[in-house]
Design goal:
Elements (H helix, E strand, L loop, with lengths): L5 H9 L6 E5 L3 H4 L7 E5 L5 H16 L4 E3 L5 H9 L4 E5 L10 E3 L11 H6 L23 H13 L8 E5 L11 H12 L6 E5 L5 H15 L6 E3 L5 H10 L2 E5 L2 H6 L6 E5 L4 H4 L9 E5 L19 H4 L3 H12 L11
Parallel strand pairs: 1-2, 3-4, 4-5, 6-7, 6-9, 7-8, 9-10, 10-11
Length: 349
């Protein structure tokens, strides 16, 4: 979802005066809710069983009633293809995926291969080529996620209530990921947090996680405090943040560290320096797509015969693409991105 956020601005620029509607499931809606180019946001549910059939039939009728001129399927799944076709738009663009081609008037080449690596933003931007829209540029077409002012104020208040000084230099460590293939060991996150609290960085570390990894975040926080004594007061567990709150939190931070998961890409919409930890995935495909002037470094285990992989079975059984990333490597990357002078806003050509 984050990787689609440059597209509305490109469409608005290419079709001045057009009206843009974005259809999205509820979980990802905060990513695009406040993009200024989107006129209408359709947030859809994902009911199960027979309820899905009735729900989607009504949704199809509602889409057709809007009389769209153009529909672009950024997802490529069966449901997205069906809704694109049902929109009734005379022009419909999607990937040339077996079993879906009937849904589109314009089909863009698609390959399921992991190699050669190509960034996901570029893969999605390909869907604009039938419209004559030029190449994507990291500065002009960076990912975005506007955060409401009230959300930013709420996050500041939460940090203050959690004991984080208002003027503290903050590092956000996101210690969970959607699957074990992207989860750096918890004890290494704890050691990293402890190192970041000490001189010369002396950061105040805020530990975050997804709801399913709350226990891991608590354990990382406890171990980091044990390791960082007497700077343990600089390690804070501030609770769960939704996507918009997470973007606000990272915007306030001096540094973000996390694996290749959704929160990394939410962080990529800010101008906060990033250290990204890559296991089975490749930076060439999944590094935050942002202004190159904002520092972001990828840390990985280097070339491995099993990397990249489809993240279904670890063929070695030891997740070595993650376990071979050392704490020292990550600490060094943090020091390097913190040394880069920051511009507060991008320079537009």
């Amino acid at each position: 979802m984050v990787f689609t956020t440059p597209i509305p601005a490109a469409l608005a620029h290419h079709y001045p005066g057009s009206r843009l509607t974005y259809l999205v499931e509820a979980a990802a809606a905060p990513v695009v809710r406040h993009l200024p180019e989107i006129d209408d946001l359709i947030v859809v549910d994902r009911p199960r069983g027979l309820r899905r059939i009735a729900y989607d039939l009504q949704l199809m009728r509602d889409l057709r009633a809007r009389h769209f001129d153009l529909a672009i399927d950024l997802h490529g799944g069966p449901r997205a293809a069906l809704l694109t076709r049902a929109s009734g738009a005379p022009r419909r663009i999607g990937y040339d995926i077996p079993g879906r081609t009937w849904a589109y008037t314009d089909r863009v080449p698609w390959t399921p291969s992991l190699m050669p690596p190509r960034h996901s933003v570029l893969n999605q931007w390909d869907l604009l080529t039938p419209l004559g829209i030029g190449s994507a540029d990291r500065t002009m077409n960076a990912v975005r996620m506007p955060v409401p002012a009230e959300t930013a104020r709420s996050v500041r208040q939460r940090l203050h209530a959690a004991g984080v000084p208002d003027q503290a230099a903050i590092a956000v460590l996101h210690v969970s990921a959607g699957n074990p293939f992207r989860r750096w060991p918890a004890e290494r996150f704890a050691a990293l947090a402890a190192a970041l609290t000490t001189e010369p960085m002396a950061l105040h570390v805020v530990i975050t996680s997804g709801p399913s990894d709350a226990a891991a975040a608590t354990a990382v926080t406890a171990e980091a405090r044990r390791l960082s004594w007497p700077t343990a007061h600089r390690v804070t567990l501030a609770g769960e943040f939704d996507l918009s709150e997470l973007a606000a939190l990272v915007s306030l931070a001096r540094l973000y560290v996390g694996g290749d998961s959704g929160p990394l890409h939410v962080a990529g919409t800010t101008r906060t320096p990033i250290v990204a930890l890559f296991g089975p995935t490749l930076p060439e495909r999944s590094m935050p797509w942002r202004d190159p002037a904002v520092p972001a470094l990828a840390v990985d285990a280097g070339p491995l015969p099993c990397r990249p992989c489809h993240q279904r079975t670890c063929v070695t059984g030891d997740f070595r693409c993650l376990t071979e990333i050392s704490v020292a490597q990550v600490v060094d990357a943090c020091r390097r991105v913190l040394e880069v002078p920051l511009r507060s806003e991008p320079i537009r050509p």
